Amino acid sequence: MDKNSITGIIIICAIMFAWMWYSAPGKEELAKQQRTKDSLALVQQQQVKDTVTGNQSSVIGETSNIKHQTSSDSLSSTDSAKTVFLNNKYDVFAATAQDSERFYTIENELLRATVSSKGGRICSVQLKEYRTHDSLPLFLFDADSSSFGILFDTENNRTINTGELFFKPTEQRSDSSLRVRLYAGEDSTGKSGKYIEYQYSLSKNSYMLGYKVNVVGMEDVVASNLNEFSLNWQMKTPTQERDLKTQRQSSTAYFKYLEESPDYLPETKDETRPLNAKIKWVSFKQQFFTSVLIADDHFEKTGADITSNNDKSSEKYVKSFASNLTIPYAHKPSETFGMRFYFGPNHFQTLKSYDLNLEKQIPLGWGIFGWVNKFLVIPVFNFLDSFNLNYAIIILCLTLVFKTLLFPVAYKTYVSSAKMRVLKPEIDELNKKFGADDAMKKQQATMALYKKAGVSPLAGCIPALLQMPILLALFRFFPASIELRQQGFWWAHDLSTYDSVWNFGKLPVIDFIYGDHVSVWALLCTITTLIYTHLNSQMMSNPGQQQMPGMKYMIYLMPIMFLPFLNKFSAGLSYYYTLANIISFAQMFVIRRFVDEKKLHAQIEEHKKKPAKAPSSFQQKLQKRLEDVQKQRSNGAGKPRVK
To answer: What's the first-to-final CA gap in the chain, in angstroms?
Structure first.
């Protein structure tokens, strides 16, 4: 911008300010304007007084009358508008939309359920025998994190949600039972005989809470074209354990169709799934506890679904669950729909006792691993638990039992490896005779030697495979066992989760790979595994197999690679693996003392003198296949290559 432009802008601004100052009214003119306004205001005020009172009374008295009349008219208008609003929204239930919220408790030795008058719902459940990881009372959910309501349409085309209305208790009340009613009528006293009743009952020493919906005299209230009610149940599950990430990975929604096995939503992603068959029960499962709604008969499939969402932004809540279910309604003078709630631990025997497949919520592994847990691990564990031992001692006894059962397998594996070592000189001769160029002939000669000596190269592999189902079954058993929850041993305060002797905080990359702490049992498990791997490779090496370059280092690398996983896993599992490794050391040295390799060599020589058995059909096919491959390679070697 040049000098002339700047000068022009300054002059224009100066002219504008000068005009505004010149045209502004003076003090006398301002005073005159104010007097005029005051006079007009007094005249208007006097006119209002004369109109309202009709006489020339005092200003103070008339002002008071005006205020009182205005306030009364305002309150009357507000009440009238509110009544119209409630009648339009809630129809015959309008009188139940206003009340103060009250709470009622039903309980037994195991749980305490609180029922709210608003919605007549169970608004919180406390499990008396359990505590959170920080020793606070354990609640499955509370009033602020849950909702429950039955929805239906009236004849006047109004949608009613019972969760918004106030129920009244009946006189039939006790510590273990409660009835609350939602009346339909002008005065909500029940004189019309029209109501929806929730009936709760709780037996002694049970986690199962009875729940019935009784619909009485509602056939002319509910829309005539409606043959079902909708039930909506929502819940946010609070944090109860130390490791929030593990809780999210172990929590999800389960459901069971009437004629099928239970199914569930993926733990690691958000999903809403329609339920397209008759439903027996739905469950909001947490890591060690669960809340289940069970129909005495079944829920209908119309409009039914179930939802599981991760509350990743929250440290207070683990997941959000919701389910929409359908209750049949036949417009009879009196109808009852029976249900039950299970509020309790994910304890296998407890859930199984109800014969509803509720125990399928406990992740024991698929296929053979689940069978091993159900029919071997859990019965042995429960038997040991009946002696009221410390759980560290129970795990030690469990390890001894399984290692004893697997001792014949370990013995067979060692003997097989010992036989291979006895044959090492003869195998070395075959290696020198054929070399690397005649790999096929060398393999055939080696197999012939094994057959003549009565040695199977698979004898050491098959016993090892037999151990895998138990090892993997226990891998699923320990983290899912509520019995280990908050049971300590030495520095581990809770065997169901990781132990920690040093929390160094969340560091980039390290936290993602290793975690924010150091688990001693994970370290001990890794160290003993490395020692066992070294001893096993020295004592049970197979001379007939040539390891690939670097493979001998890989077997040591695997336990180290597995350490970050164990560092975040159940201390009970790491403790078991450590004990198993120590017992394996002892077994190995015992077997070594009783297996005489000279006697084995003599047995092999005796076996060589016996006439060879006729090969089986499988062996014949395998031999023929090897010969065909050898012929193809020989023919291919003699042909010139086409360039």
So the answer is: 81
Closest CA to 327 of 406, 227, 423: 227
Q: Report the candidate in 265, 264, 297 with the shortest Cα–Cα distance to residue 279.
A: 297
Q: Given this model, what pLDDT does residue 50 score?
A: 42
Closest CA to 283 of 336, 346, 206, 326: 346
Backbone angles phi, psi at 509, to 5 degrees: 70, -50
| CB neighbour class for 214 (10 Å; exposed up to 12, middle 13-18, buried from 19) | middle
| CA 222 to chain centroid | 38
Structure tokens at 280: 């027996």
Query: In terms of C-beta distances under 8 Å and separation of at least 24 residues, what long-range contacts does 422-429 make, across chains too?
Result: 422/597, 422/600, 422/601, 422/604, 423/449, 423/450, 423/453, 423/455, 423/543, 423/544, 423/604, 424/543, 424/544, 427/543, 427/544, 428/543
User: What token pair was written down for 424?
Assistant: 């090492």
Query: Which residue carries 């993926």 as its tokens?
Result: 266
Phi, psi of 423 (to 5 degrees): -85, 0
Query: Within 13 Å, how many C-alpha atoms sit on residue 107's CB side?
Result: 14
* Tokens coding 49: 């007084």
Neighbours of 326 (CB within 10 A): 20
Percent of the chain at pLDDT exceeding 70: 76
Instruction: For residue 49, name the pLDDT band (cuts at 50, 70, 90).
Output: very low
Q: What is the pTM of this model?
A: 0.76
Distance CA 295, CA 280 (A): 6
Least Cα distance to 95 among 190, 220, 178 occurs for: 190
Q: Judge whether residue 13 has pLDDT over 60.
A: no
Residue entry with tokens 């009528």: 185
Residue with tokens 């023929």: 624
Q: Are 423 and 597 in contact (CB under 8 A)?
A: no
What is the model's pLDDT at position 614? 60
Rounded to whole angstroms, how far apart are CA atoms 43 and 35?
Answer: 12
Q: Quick one: residue 357, left, alpha or beta (phi over 0 = left, psi -120 to 50 = alpha)?
A: left
Cβ neighbours for 295, distance < 8 A, ≥ 6 positions apart: 279, 280, 281, 337, 338, 339
By C-alpha distance, which of 145, 137, 143 is closest to 317? 145
- Enter the tokens of residue 150: 């039955």
Burial class (CB in 10 A: 0-12, 13-18, 19+), 21: exposed
Q: DSSP per residue over 134-180, as a string?
A: TSPEEEEE-GGGEEEEEEEEBTTS-EEEGGGSB-EE-S--BTTEEEE
Query: What are the chain's domains?
Result: 94-362 (2.70.98.90), 370-499+571-609 (no CATH)
Helix (H, G, I), strand (E, B) or coil at 304: strand
Asked if residue 16 has pLDDT above 70, the reply is no
Nearest to 384 by CA among 363, 371, 368, 400: 400
Token pair belonging to 72: 């009364």
Distance CA(125)–CA(63), nearest Å, equals 57
d(CA 153, CA 155): 7
What is the Cα gyration radius of the chain?
Answer: 41
Which residues on neighbouring strands pair with residue 335, listed in sequence order?
215
Angle between helices 407-422 and 571-594 (to 10 degrees): 50
